[in-house]
Amino acid sequence: MELRPLGNSSLKVSPICLGTMYFGTKTDQTQSELLLDAYLSNGGNFIDTSNNYAFWMEQGVGDESETVLGHWLQRQSRDRIVLATKCGARPRAYTGSLDQIELEGLRKATIIQAVEDSLRRLHTDYIDLLYGHIDFLEYPVEERLEAFATLKKSGKVRAFGISNTWAWRVEESLQLSREKDLPTYCAVQQKYSYLRPKPDADFWVQRLIDDGMLQYARQRPNITLLAYSTLLAGLYAKGPDAELPPEYDLPENRERLQRLHNMAQTTGYTANQLVLVWMMAQEVPILPLISGSKVHQIEESMGALSINEPIQL
Question: What CA–CA distance (Å, rounded) separates 24 from 281?
Answer without folding.
Answer: 33
